[in-house]
Amino acid sequence: MMKACGPRRRAVVDEVRYMVQAGMSRCARFLRAGVAVLGMIALGGCASTFSAEVTRYQQWPADAAGAHYRVLTGDDEKNDLQFQAYADMIRAAIGVTGLVEARQEADARFDLRMDYGSPMTRAWISRPVDPFYYPGGPYGFHGPYAGMYRPWGGWAFGPPVESVPVDLYRHTLTVTIKDRRQQGREVYRATAVSLGQSDNLTVVMPYLARAIFDRFPGHNAQVIEVEYPMDG
To answer: Of all residues in the chain, what percent carry a pLDDT higher than 70?
Structure first.
């Protein structure tokens, strides 16, 4: 589960493990969001499991089986090796749809366009303050289970929480498919999003491409969560 994790990532997973094992039921409402974010980091960033959220819209034609498609390439993308590599990953994942890549442009019924990126975003998470030592309690007790006064609920036991910022990369892949038989009408659009601590989009791109066509074509205006084991 912890293959090839750096010290920082290992620490993140340890935080999640501590919060689960400590059984801090009184803090559950305040830690839930933080645990979710940290869990996504652990899954998407260094563990052997990839997770993503997919949002899609579709009006897929019933007679599309075996039809041909082409990947649209802009002038600035024809010599872009990164774009070409990602396009190959899309080609590898699209097979489950029954579509076949056209040998000639004139043979293509569907036009496929992809957009991708890894913008940085900042999230605030709640986590326990140092579980080994902190001042607390009306009598000056110390330690992970010292009492402390909480304005919203009086005296309670358990470690206090603090909000800390975490910088994440929001890996995204959007694929749109238009039907040339319907005057270029959009018939499929899906966006896959995965959070991670690394900006290396290439590592997760094969899984984002797989997520785009997971249970294709699905339902219109559908949001699903996917999870795959990662190689290596």
So the answer is: 66
Determine the Cα–Cα distance for residues 175 and 195; give it in Å rounded to an integer.
Answer: 18
- Report DSSP letters for 69-105, one per residue: EEE---TTTTT-HHHHHHHHHHHHHGGGGT-EE-SSG
What letter does residue 231 receive in the DSSP assignment?
A: P
Question: 3-class DSSP state for residue 147?
Answer: strand
**Rounded Cα–Cα distance for residues 200 and 117 (Å):** 10
> Is 172 in contact with 118 (CB distance < 8 Å)?
yes
Domain map of the chain by residue range?
7-229
For 5, list phi and psi in degrees, rounded to 5. Answer: -90, 140
Closest by alpha carbon to 47, among 17, 90, 21, 88?
17
0.85 cut: is pTM over it? no
Residues in CB range of 37: below 8 A, 6 or more apart: 123, 125, 166, 168, 195
**Could you report the per-residue pLDDT of 187-204, keeping only the tens digit for each?**
999 999 999 989 999 999
H helix or E strand, kind and range, residue 166 = strand 161-179
The 8-class DSSP code of residue 180 comes to G
